[in-house]
Amino acid sequence: MKEIQNVLVVGGGMMGKNIAFVMTASPAIRVTVTDITAQDIHGEIARNCRLLVAHQVITEEELNQRLGRIFFTTDIDSEQVKRADLVIEAVYEDMAVKQETFAKLETLCFPEAIFCTNTSVMSPSRISENLKYRQRFVGTHFWNPAHLIPLVEVVKTDATSDETAETVMQLLTSVGKKAILCQKDVPGFVANRMQHALWREAISIVENGIADAQTVDEAVKFSFGLRLGQLGPLENADMVGLDLTYSIHDYILPHLEASGRPSPVLEELRAHGHLGFKTGKGFKSWTPGQMQAVRDSLNTYLIKALYDK
Ligand SMILES: NC(=O)c1ccc[n+]([C@@H]2O[C@H](COP(=O)([O-])OP(=O)(O)OC[C@H]3O[C@@H](n4cnc5c(N)ncnc54)[C@H](O)[C@@H]3O)[C@@H](O)[C@H]2O)c1
Question: Which of 64, 142, 247, 279 lies 20 to 30 A from 121 at CA?
Answer without folding.
Answer: 279
